[in-house]
Amino acid sequence: MDLADAEKLIAAAQEKARSINVKVTVAVVDGGAHLVALSRMDGANPMSPVIATGKAAGAAMFRRDGAWLLSTANDRPAFWAAVKDMAGRDMVPGPGSLPVIKDGAVIGAIGVSGAAPNEDLACAEAAVSSLA
Predict the structure, then answer these.
(1) Dihedral class, residue 76 (left if φ above 0, else alpha if ψ from -120 to 50, else beta)
(2) Which domains does the chain have, with CATH numbers?
């Protein structure tokens, strides 16, 4: 994940957020879940940067979307807790995070927070589709 792709993802997610009249924070991480870029829209919830970063980190580390992460956390709480501890970082399960795939490989992930779960997910989906 390079900065140029991260900035494209953020721009597309924020464009979608404006179109549905919500304020969000967008976090983009590389394949190792290291933050590449973070942007909080004016008026977005003050907690949303931490949540968006945690969503992106989980999607990057597991190479799965946030809904899968939430299902795993709910269905296997002991497993989720153990893996989260082993990862050594906060990971937030739930809609609004997606792995980012380029040329057939996962290059990172995006996490969106600040709106309703389905709205966060819509922003993340718009972002990922912008790189295709």
Answers:
(1) beta
(2) 3-130 (3.30.450.150)
How remote is the C-alpha of 55 from its chain's centroid? 5
Mean pLDDT of 93-103: 95
The model's pTM is: 0.94
Tokens of 38: 């973070």
Give me the pLDDT at residue 132, please: 76
Taking only the tens place, the pLDDT of each residue in 46-73 is 999 999 999 999 999 999 999 999 999 9
- The phi, psi pair for 104, rounded to 5°, reads 80, 0
Three-state SS sequence of the chain: CCHHHHHHHHHHHHHHHHHCCCCCEEEEEECCCCEEEEEECCCCCCCHHHHHHHHHHHHHHHCCCHHHHHHHHHHCHHHHHHHHHHHCCCCCCCCCEEEEEECCEEEEEEEEECCCHHHHHHHHHHHHHHCC
